[in-house]
Design a protein that fits this description.
Strand order of the largest sheet: 2-1-3
Radius of gyration: 21 Å
Number of helices: 12
Low-confidence stretches: 137-143, 159-183
Helix content: 55-70%
Mean pLDDT: 78
Number of domains: 2
Number of strands: 3
Order of helices and strands: HHHHHHEEEHHHHHH
Distance between the termini: 45 Å
Strand content: under 5%
Structural class: mainly alpha
Length: 318
């Protein structure tokens, strides 16, 4: 810790050392969310860090750090990438991000952000209502850590659970339990629902367009991935695979326009160990979360994003 403080003392920035340490702590927390849910890091990082620095600098730092966490997600869960789905999303999203970035100087984004926030909140409330009324239905017999046989909802079955057959005999190969319980192997997308092109392509165009225009269109991607019924690791990695090219485009725009805060270069470099720690913690957390609880956490994060956008836009318009 003393070495870290001594290193930060030579950082060519006007931000106090204790604030720099706090920024790195918030970065770690935001990366945990990025690794565990696939998104949400920008909400936490930008909302907090912008209290201590220029908002544009916070956005640029978040993007240049977050892209590495996204790459880590791709490497960690590469077997779960739906390449066909990802490739089709680029057809609509790449034109959308360029058009949105171009129109950012011509349109008043405050009202657009307000409508977007209301849309996100409406969507989340509908999904939460459906989630609370849903009945997991099918159950499996599992053996807990004490060897006792219990019934458990299919949505609550984790890879660590030992499934039990009709005669009470434990089924081996715990890593295959999720496949045996659900009838679908992780990463096998042949049994997932298809999204109609009338919704898919306009959806990803709107996602990228609003991303370029207001920089916060993640909830649209969440809705599309949710409609595809991606589960946990699938959701995390396919969120990253569909958004990384857009993030690279945004970072290129930031660098070309000289928006990177080079006065914080030492803090930026020290962020990489935080990214490593955050991703390890996030991966550990997601493996312990049941698909049903994971879905609830996604909806709650969307609710936080919608409320945050609504409050900020309301302050601007008032």
């Amino acid at each position: 810790m003393k070495t870290l403080l001594r290193f930060l003392a030579f950082s060519p920035t006007v931000i106090a050392i204790h604030v720099q340490v706090f920024i790195l702590a918030i970065l770690t927390l935001s990366i945990v969310l990025k690794a565990a849910l696939g998104f949400g890091n920008a909400l936490v990082f930008i909302s907090v860090v912008s209290l201590f620095m220029n908002t544009k600098s916070a956005i640029v730092l978040c993007a240049t750090w977050g892209v590495w966490a996204g790459i880590s997600n791709l490497i960690k869960y590469r077997a779960c990438i739906d390449w066909k789905y990802t490739g089709k999303s680029y057809i609509a999203s790449l034109p959308g991000v360029f058009i949105g970035s171009f129109l950012i100087v011509a349109l008043d984004t405050a009202w657009i952000e307000l409508v977007f926030a209301l849309f996100v909140l409406s969507y989340v409330l509908i999904k939460l209502r459906t989630w609370t009324k849903s009945n997991p239905g099918r159950q499996a017999i599992v053996a807990n850590k004490d060897g006792e046989q219990i019934q458990k909802d299919i949505e609550e079955v984790n890879e660590s659970d030992a499934l039990v057959d009709f005669f009470g005999k434990e089924i081996r190969q715990p890593e295959k339990n999720k496949e045996r319980a659900t009838g679908r192997q992780l990463g096998d997308y042949t049994m997932l629902p298809r999204i109609h092109p009338a919704f898919f392509y306009p959806g990803y165009f709107g996602f990228a367009f609003l991303g370029g225009l207001i920089g916060a269109a993640g909830p649209i991607n969440v809705g599309l991935l949710d409609a595809r019924n991606f589960q946990r690791e699938e959701f995390v990695v396919n969120f990253s695979s569909t958004t990384l090219p857009l993030t690279f485009i945004g970072i290129t725009v930031y660098l070309v326009n000289g928006l990177f805060p080079f006065e914080l270069i030492w803090v930026w470099l020290l962020g990489f160990p935080c990214i490593y720690v955050g991703t390890r913690l996030g991966y550990h957390a997601v493996s312990k979360i049941s698909p049903r609880k994971f879905q609830l956490m996604v909806y709650l994060m969307l609710l936080a994003i919608g409320l945050n956008t609504l409050i900020k836009t309301g302050i601007v318009l008032l």
